[in-house]
Write a structure and sequence with these properties.
single chain; about 575 residues; alpha/beta; TIM Barrel; 4 domains; 14 strands; binds 3-methyl-2-oxobutanoic acid; binds zinc ion
């Protein structure tokens, strides 16, 4: 079928002719210098910009997570940003190892106002920018290339001369050729060289050159080519920190940042959870977690994921998608039976302190403060592994395989009929109602055993509702003796086909649990019982099977049409 789209409306982004591409074999071996722009780019993109209180919360979170460079706003363009900057400085809110950064257009009066906002700050980065791409030059500013270079050069001069008026502050300068990735790379280098010429950075006093993909218009490989070309050809590479600022229009902001780091960049600007203009900025959390999962210290503390998600949503009024990389509610959850089985097997073999090696889980969810409860959740797609896992984790039951099959069939039927997820509590309720003896059902009161001539003899008292009765019988084993005694009393055949048992952890309401499968008059039933000793648990599990058989028989009788 022909698409209704007119693809001829668009043209491909020009490829970079590069013979000596090295970045594909580059490797990221350490965390970049992080800069958080949540309070500026992130804030500018909100339907309702952050209130003072929300800004303060976001600031506190960014500091807590370990960001050492934080762009706190655009004080020359917004009185609120100006006031927030003053609050940080006057109320001594800036830790000694954190530097605030302000953004400003390359215009004299705005640069002056930005310095006023920063008065008294111990340290600050002044970030000046102007746009350099052809569409901005031709359609927005109506300037040729030399006009654009002149804006950048004059801005750099003003940033430098104003800084001299505030000697109490240790300033660093940053320049962004806005729309760098849509600019001819050689021209972007020319503009940046003009700025570098003014600032005269050296190794002890580096300036930051920030390369934005203001709008992501090409693949991340093209961006990496641009960054590598820039790093190779810009003047005084050893005296500049090359920073990247990618946006996510094509969904590749993270990939572009990573390939850009492989291409030689040192620093990354981004936001928590990728909030920002249009599709957002590069997500600092995702990039940090990508590094972490490769065995690299991200130099950020992301161990309380739920707090990050909560504060970011509260400040931005944007909900986090449940499948958001690394932090979404569902990103470590398996519903599918085969995934659950694989995870369960791997988790049981994962040793403390060993290299993480678990199918379907790229990292240990516990590192982010998540528990394994959220890993395995049960719906109609789930298999026996999931139900078994929940029963073991939450209730200490290690169901034998034959019972896992029965239990998961029952839970799956329930999930299909309710068309919803089945919670751990709901699974426990179903297990109890189906396999465990209920109040008023059959329950062991006491038993006495004798061994004689290789045979076990049992006498037991069984409670049924308000009454009890006695049974007596013999067999080759204790369970066989119990079944025979019971069978004689109720007039049915009772035969054990499977049984299993294990001790329960200390602190649980019983010391042993037993699982039995019993044929009552040829029909199979499964029972589970917990008790103070293994034998009592087994007897009660058998009684539960008998109770199920009796209740089915009475249901059948009630349902049978009466014969006139
Ligand atoms: O996306 C962008 O180009 C920016 C600059 C001002 C750095 O936010
Ligand atoms: Zn931006």
């Amino acid at each position: 079928m022909m698409s209704k789209f007119n693809h001829q409306k668009y043209r491909p982004h020009p490829a970079i002719k590069k013979q000596d591409r090295r970045w594909p074999s580059g490797q990221i071996t350490q965390a970049p210098i992080w800069c958080a722009v949540d309070l500026r780019d992130g804030n500018q993109a909100l339907i309702e910009p952050m209130s003072v209180h929300q800004k303060q919360r976001m600031w506190a979170l960014l500091v807590k997570l370990g960001f050492k460079e934080i762009e706190i706003g655009f004080p020359s363009a917004s009185q609120e940003d100006f006031d927030f900057c003053r609050w940080l400085i006057e109320e001594n809110q800036i830790p000694d190892d954190v530097t605030i950064q302000v953004l400003v257009q390359a215009r004299d009066e705005l640069i002056e106002r930005s310095y006023e906002a920063l008065k008294g700050a111990p340290r600050a980065i002044v970030h000046v920018y102007n746009s350099t791409s052809p569409v901005q030059r031709e359609k927005v500013f109506g300037l040729d290339k030399s006009g654009i270079i002149e804006i950048a050069r004059k801005g750099a001069l003003k940033v430098k001369s104003e800084a001299a008026r505030y000697p109490e502050t240790a300033f660093r300068f940053q320049y962004s050729p806005e729309s760098f990735s849509s600019t001819e790379t050689d021209f972007a280098i020319e503009v940046c060289n003009a700025v570098i010429d003014v600032w005269q950075p050296d190794q002890d006093n580096k300036c930051i050159i920030n390369l934005p993909a203001t709008v992501e218009c090409a693949g991340p490989n093209v961006f990496a080519d641009q960054v590598e070309t820039f790093c190779d050809q810009v003047n005084r590479r050893d005296a500049i920190i090359v920073s990247l600022h990618t946006h996510n229009d094509r969904g590749c902001a993270i990939a572009a940042a990573e390939l850009g780091l492989m291409a030689g960049a040192d620093r990354i600007e981004g936001t928590l959870m990728g909030n920002g203009e249009r599709t957002g900025n590069m997500d600092n959390v995702t990039l940090a977690m990508n590094l972490y999962s490769q065995g690299i210290d991200p130099q950020l503390d992301l161990s309380n994921a739920d707090e990050i998600v909560r504060i970011v949503s509260e400040c931005t009024q944007i909900q986090t998608h449940p499948r958001h990389p690394w932090l979404g509610e569902l990103v470590y959850t398996a519903f599918s039976g085969s995934h659950q089985d694989a995870i369960r097997k791997c988790l049981s073999q994962q040793q403390d302190g060993a290299i993480w090696d678990v199918a379907y889980l790229p990292i240990d969810p516990k590192d982010l403060g998540r528990d394994y409860q959220s890993v395995i959740r049960v719906n109609s797609q789930s298999g026996k592994g999931g139900v078994a896992y929940i029963l073991e984790q939450d209730y200490g039951l290690q169901l034998p395989r034959w019972l896992q099959i029965e239990a998961s069939r029952m839970v799956q039927e329930h999930a299909e009929s309710t068309k919803s997820e089945v919670s751990s509590q709901e699974i426990w309720r179903l297990i109890n109602e189906t396999f465990m003896s209920r109040d008023g059902g059959l329950r062991l009161n006491s038993y006495h055993l004798d061994k004689n001539a290789g045979h076990e003899h049992i006498t037991a008292r069984i409670q049924t509702g308000p009454e009890d009765f006695e049974i007596r019988g013999s067999g080759e084993g204790t369970l066989a003796a119990f079944c025979r005694a019971l069978a004689e009393h109720v007039g049915k055949t009772i035969e054990i086909t499977h049984y299993d048992q294990h001790a329960l952890a200390e602190g649980s309401d019983a010391s042993a649990v037993a699982y039995v499968q019993v044929k009552v008059d040829g029909v199979r039933y499964c029972g589970i019982a917990k008790d103070g000793d293994v034998l009592s648990a087994n007897f009660n599990a058998i009684l539960s099977c008998l109770a199920q058989a009796q209740s089915q028989a009475s249901n059948r009788t009630e349902a049978a049409p009466s014969v006139a």
